[in-house]
Write a structure and sequence with these properties.
The complex is a heterodimer.
Chain A lengths: L10 H31 L8 H32 L3 H8 L5 H6 L6 H19 L13 H6 L4 H17 L14 H19 L5 H20 L4 H12 L6 H10 L3 H12 L3 H9 L4 H9 L4 H14 L5 H13 L2 H12 L2 H10 L4
Helix pairs in contact in A: 2-3, 2-5, 2-8, 2-9, 5-13, 7-10, 8-9, 10-12, 11-12, 11-15, 12-13, 14-17, 15-16
Chain B lengths: L10 E5 L5 E4 L1 H9 L11 H13 L3 E9 L2 E12 L2 E11 L2 H18 L2 E5 L5 E4 L3 H5 L15 E3 L8 H8 L3 E8 L5 E10 L5 E11 L2 H7 L11 H26 L8 H30 L9 E4 H11 L1 H6 L3 E3 L8 E4 L1 H18 L5 E9 L2 E7 L31 H11 L3 E6 L5 E8 L8
Parallel strand pairs in B: 13-15
Antiparallel strand pairs in B: 1-2, 1-5, 3-4, 4-5, 6-7, 6-11, 8-9, 9-10, 10-11, 12-14, 15-16, 16-18, 17-18
Helix pairs in contact in B: 3-7, 7-8, 8-12, 9-11, 11-12
């Protein structure tokens, strides 16, 4: 009873379809061959592993699905209110726009791709980190303690971060649920999805009505989304609210990493070092940890804390060479905070300036 | 041999600053000796030695779960190495024999089940402060998640005792175990939930909190309205198949797709035996997916409102198509299917899709049980107003005593046999009966089996 059954009465139609598809398939085959060649010639360390690729794909799909759902919903309501029930219904149904926007190159945008890629990497590292709770077991975890802190700013920021994490979905929820991009990226995705919806809706003569409804929907969706802070921003706000002093930082970082809260870890390092969140995140997801160790020295971390962080990251990602790290820890500690800060100075520059320098090959 | 299966307390050991084993409690000493080591020499278990080297260089206590070979066994150990003024102190616990992947993946698997079955989810830290509640739930149940996140669990749940003054969650907390059946009210609302949870254990073996699920408790009065009144008659409630679908379909699909692309060597050449493993994985995945399909079929046909369409069909034509669909499988099994000729016709009433499903099942079984070189016959017969398809094989046959059993749910004659869910014939007969027909069997041990699908005929006065 379990065989995949193709209703044989559909067979003739499928055959005709097959013949129709031959030309397209030939073109696609040629394209695939070129892509295969590109893939083959890619240096090994530049390849994305299968697991990351799968998660990235899922994240991109979830991004489109959530934005698309919001826009469809909003547009259908607008159209229904304006008495265009037929178009409203068309807006509600219809296939996903994912393939359309992806093929058209939405995710080739380096900023959007970079953001999603970095999130996926950080999340998969965070998930694999060995859990290690602080010694006194009856004490709530750091984030719960902060949520109850007497400092209202800290308490509100900690709760906001937990709420942002819940919106995004956690491991127990089965992965990424909703996508909370920062406003410019969210807006870009929303406009692309709206343009794809315009195509699939086939508004015919009602194209002006459809355009007006879609444009207004996108603006509203962007507005609504802007009211909630993405997890990364919530974490930065918390790090600012805590405003950890030098000697408090090691314990906070150790606890954040032991609790698998890598986003908070990044925010704490970013706050302590004065670097932007994105820059620190790039250091953390880089399996060659050199820049991260220098950044941790720049904030004056002690040997034991750097050792614990290095060990935890290597346990999470065996490709990080823990033996080489252990051999280098004396060298890492020999870097003075001042020297480390000077070495990292380019990272503190305006992001676009820095990437322009990299492009010209003059960085560092 | 020391019994490693007990999973009892830790064994201590001491290593000098330059990595030589000074002394160790018997179990650890024995493991080290079997790995070729001795007191006064470097630690011989490679994974423990590697951790010791790391601790010497990093100068901090480290814990790592390792799998060490011990004779023919693999044992899972948690090794903690801590530097002190005398050198390095070792604490080796766990001592679980068995497949390491089992030990590692069990918690993830348990969480999958927890998730598949839950209305919503929550987590706490070790001090039972809420660190997560599913995003949608506050709005649905009417509380503000911001007022409970980070707060003690009792801020959200008003825990109820189990009638004897006990609280399942507290028992679980004390023993760091899972719990189920903890009832609670949601504060500030009229909602009640049943809570279950799994403990999270950190790398050092310390309790780190609960990963929990909440199931809505529908008040008794509302339950009889909300539930389909007849659903209680089935032992697979509708929600079950939905959950099965949710929990299994997606991962199985991924397993099959990945195994297929490995087996097709889509990403480059693989060693032959790995190709075969991948093919095995894909086929086992398909088998499981088939079982999921069967369970969903089962829950559909057991619903009292299950109905089939009555279409005018040609039974001979359906039988030919079914035989065609199984041609490849038959060829692989060196079995010949003797299908009805294109001149045969047998008009009947039934739903095309369902009749095809039944015949694919009957012919598929016949192919499976046929010896190599055997033949499966498909014959058409008219019996008064009834139209019959006979599927006969040359397999080992079915003893009269077993002939009813094979139509029972999960019924199979030989429980050790692989393949099939034991649901196929049950579903086939239910479908046939829903179409005012039946399936009967006629067989004797050693003489093959004859299955007859009977459906209402569609014979005009001319044929009668």
């Amino acid at each position: 009873m379990s065989d995949d059954l193709l209703d044989p009465r559909d067979a003739d139609m499928s055959a005709a379809q097959l013949l129709d598809d031959v030309v397209a398939a030939e073109r696609a085959g040629h394209r695939r061959l070129r892509a295969a060649a590109d893939h083959f010639h890619m240096p090994v360390d530049a390849r994305i592993d299968d697991r990351t690729a799968a998660q990235l794909d899922a994240t991109m799909r979830a991004t489109i699905a959530s934005v698309e759902g919001q826009i469809r919903d909003q547009a259908a309501r607008l159209l229904a209110a304006r008495g265009d029930a037929a178009l409203a219904q068309t807006m509600r149904i219809g296939g996903s726009t994912f393939d359309r926007v992806q093929r058209a190159g939405l995710f080739r945008d380096p900023v959007l791709f970079g953001e999603l890629f970095a999130r996926v990497r950080l999340e998969s590292i965070g998930r694999a980190l060995p859990m290690l709770i602080a010694d006194s077991r009856d004490r709530p975890t750091m984030i719960a303690r902060m949520a109850q802190a007497s400092d209202r700013l800290v308490a509100v920021a900690a709760v906001a971060m937990l709420a942002a994490q819940a919106r995004r979905g956690t491991v127990v929820d089965g992965g990424t649920a909703a996508i909370d991009l920062i406003r410019p990226l969210h807006a870009r995705v929303a406009w692309w999805v709206a343009a794809a919806l315009r195509e699939t809706a086939h508004p015919g003569g009602a194209v002006a009505t459809a355009d007006a409804a879609l444009a207004e929907s996108v603006r509203r969706v962007i507005e609504v989304q802007s009211e909630t802070a993405p997890l990364e921003i919530a974490a930065m706000r918390l790090a600012h609210a805590i405003d950890a002093k030098g000697d408090e930082v090691p314990a906070l970082l150790t606890e954040a990493i032991g609790d698998g809260r890598l986003v908070l870890f990044v925010a704490l390092v970013a706050r302590a070092s004065g670097l932007a969140f994105d820059r620190v995140r790039d250091l953390v997801i880089d399996t060659d940890g050199s820049r991260l160790w220098v950044a941790l020295r720049a904030i004056g971390l002690d040997r034991a804390t750097i050792g614990r962080i290095g060990f935890a990251l290597a346990e999470a990602e065996p490709v990080r060479d823990i033996e080489a790290f252990a051999d280098r820890i004396d060298t890492i500690m020999a870097v003075t905070p001042d020297a480390a800060r000077i070495a990292l100075a380019p990272l503190a520059l305006d992001a676009e300036y820095h990437s322009a320098m990299l492009a010209l090959g003059t960085a560092g | 041999m020391i019994d490693m299966r007990s999973g009892s307390g830790p064994a201590m050991g001491r290593v000098t600053a330059d990595g030589l084993l000074l002394d160790a409690e018997p179990r650890l000493a024995e493991l080290n000796r079997r790995a070729g080591g001795a007191p006064g020499r470097p630690v011989a278990v490679p994974q423990i030695a590697a951790l010791v080297r790391l601790v010497r260089r990093l100068g901090i206590p480290l814990t790592r779960a390792i799998v060490a070979a011990d004779g023919e066994d693999d044992i899972t150990l948690t090794v903690r190495a801590e530097p002190d003024e005398l050198g390095i102190r070792l604490e080796v616990s766990g001592w679980m024999a068995g497949a390491p992947w089992e030990a590692e993946n069990a918690p993830r698997r348990d969480i999958d089940f927890l998730r598949a079955d839950a209305d919503w989810l929550w987590t706490t830290d070790a001090a039972l402060h809420l660190t997560h509640v599913s995003d949608h739930v506050g709005e649905e149940l009417g509380f503000d998640p911001q007022t409970v996140l980070g707060q003690p669990i009792t801020r959200l749940f008003k825990l109820s005792d189990d009638g004897d003054g006990g609280f399942p969650i507290l028992g679980a907390l004390a023993s760091q175990a899972w719990f189920d059946g903890q009832e609670a009210g949601i504060r500030g609302t009229a909602h009640r939930v049943r809570l279950s949870a799994l403990p999270r254990i950190d790398a050092n073996g310390q309790f780190a909190g609960f990963d929990g699920a909440a199931h809505a408790i529908v008040p008794a009065g509302a339950a009889s309205l909300a539930l389909d009144p007849d659903e209680a008659n089935t032992d697979l409630p509708d929600g079950f198949s939905r959950r099965i679908g949710r929990a299994l379909r997606h991962p199985l699909g991924r397993i099959i797709a990945n195994a297929d692309s490995m087996s097709a060597q889509a990403d480059g050449p693989l060693r032959e035996d790995y190709v075969a493993y991948a093919a095995d994985i894909a086929s086992a995945g398909r088998h499981l997916l088939g079982l999921v399909d069967d369970l969903e079929d089962l829950s559909a046909i057991e619903r009292p409102d299950f109905a089939v369409a009555v279409e005018e069909i040609d039974l001979a034509d359906v039988a030919r198509r079914a035989a065609g669909l199984l041609a490849v499988r038959a060829t692989q099994g060196l079995v010949r299917i003797d299908r009805p000729s294109f001149d045969d016709a047998l008009p009947a009433h039934g739903e095309f899709r369902r009749v095809l499903q039944i015949l694919v099942n009957l012919i598929g079984n016949a192919v499976r049980y046929s010896p190599a070189g055997g033949t499966v016959w498909i014959r058409m017969e008219r019996d008064g107003e009834k139209a019959c398809v006979i599927v006969a094989d040359q397999g080992k046959g079915i003893a009269p005593a077993d002939q009813e059993r094979i139509f029972a749910k999960f019924g199979r004659v030989d429980p050790t046999e692989v393949g099939g869910s034991g649901l196929g014939l049950y579903i086939a007969r239910r479908l046939a009966r829903a179409m005012d027909g039946d399936i009967v069997v006629d067989s004797a041990v050693g003489q093959g089996a004859r299955f007859v699908l009977i459906l209402p005929g569609r014979f005009g006065a001319k044929d009668a």
